Amino acid sequence: MKIRILRKNRQLQEAKNPTTDRYLQTQAKPLSGEIRHAPLQIQNSRIEIGLNIDRFLQRPFVTVGEESIDDSGQMRKITNPKETNLLLYVYRGISPDGKLMKQQNVTAVNKELIERIGHFLMSLDSLEKKVLASDIDFIIQSMTEERSSKQEPTHQSTHMLKNAPGHFDDYVFATRRRSVYKDTRAGKDFMLKKTPELKNIPDQHHFLFSMENLMGRVKQALGQQPEADIPVLDAVSYDANYRLGDTTEEIETERNYVAPEAEVSVMKAHQNLFMTTYTNPPQWILDMSPEEQLQIMGPHFETILIKTKSKLETKQKPTEFFDLIKIGDNVPDIFLNEYEEVIGSFFTGLDEQGYDI
C-alpha cells in the first residue's frame, strides 16, 4: 500500500519501497568533523569505481536473468543461480544433476577472481584508475574496520518487530546511485560478506572469500602508485562517494537541513494525533482493519519516524521514539512491518549512541 510522505524525504521513501536497497544502506553514517569537498570530477570517478566494484567484483560476469551461450552454441537466459559463477558453486562444484558437491576447487575460484578483476579494471577509464590507485589503501582499511567479528541479533527483533529479517552484512557500494538508476541486477555473491559465513570452509581457504583480499589483488593488478594531485580520501568522502554513490555536497545539505517553523508545527500536530490515538485506542479505531488504520494513520506515524531520524543524526535524544516504544503494544503490527528497516536502523543508532533500551 502506497503511503503519502508528508515531507519529501528520499531516504524514507526508499525505505518503504521493497525494490530498493535496505534503508541503512542508503543513509550517511553519523561521522563528525568538517566535510571536505573534492572536485566533482574526482567525486564522480569515485562513484563510478564504487558502481563497478558492485557490478564486476561482487558478482559473476553473467548472472541470473542474463543470457549466455550454452554448450550447443545457443543463447539462453540463465534462471538457476547454480549455473552462474557464484564463488560457493565454483568452490564446491555442481554435479550433473544440479546438486552442490563437496570439492575444494581453489584453482577454479582463483581463476574466477582473476576474471572479475580483469573485467573491473577494463571498466575504468584512465582518471578512474588514477583515483583508485590513490584511494585503494583507504578502501581496504575501511573494509577491515567494518568487518564484524560475530553475528548479533537485531534490536528490532528484540523490542518491536515480529519475524524481523536477519542481519544484513555484506559490503555495499553506490547504494543511492544504483537505486536511482533502478539497478536491481541479481546475483550478488553471498560469500563476500563482512560476518563469518565460512564455518564449513577450511580456514586456509577463507582468503578466497575476503573482500579485503580481493581488493588487495586489484591493487596488485592495477600496478599504479598514488599521485599527489588526487585529494586524499577521508571517512566522509568514502561514505558519500563509495558507499552511497552520492556527493559530499549532498551529504552536507542533509546534515544542515533545518525545517521551517511552520513545518515543525504541522509535524508536531501529526505526531500528537498518532500518540493520542494509540495511547488509549478509541473504539472507532479498533473497529478498523489494520490496513484501514495504516491508510489513515500512516502519514501521522511517518512524522514520528522523520523526527526520530533527524534527532539521531544530530545526536539528540529522540523522545518521540521512546514514547512510541511505550505504546508499541497498542500499535498494529502492520505499521512496524511496513517500516521495519527504518525502525531497525533507529535501534542500531540508539545503541551506537549509548542509549539503554
Q: Approximately what portion of the residues adopt beta-strand conformation?
A: under 5%
- The coarse silhouette is globular
List the quaternary state of the chains. Answer: single chain
**What's the rounded overall pLDDT mean?**
80
Number of domains as seen in the coordinates: 2
Record the strand order, biggest sheet. 1-2
Q: Rounded to an integer, what's the Rg over CA atoms? A: 23 Å
Structural class: mainly alpha
- Helices and strands, in N-to-C order? HHEEHHHHHHHHHHHHHH
| Tally of separate helices | 16
Uncertain spans: 1-22, 149-168, 180-185
Gap from first CA to last CA: 31 Å
Query: What's the count of strands?
Result: 2
Layout of secondary structure:
Blueprint: H1 10-16, H2 40-57, E1 67-69, E2 75-77, H3 87-92, H4 106-122, H5 126-146, H6 155-159, H7 175-180, H8 211-222, H9 235-244, H10 248-256, H11 261-279, H12 283-286, H13 290-313, H14 319-326, H15 333-338, H16 340-352
Antiparallel strand pairs: 1-2
Helix pairs in contact: 2-4, 2-5, 2-9, 4-8, 5-8, 11-13, 13-14, 13-16
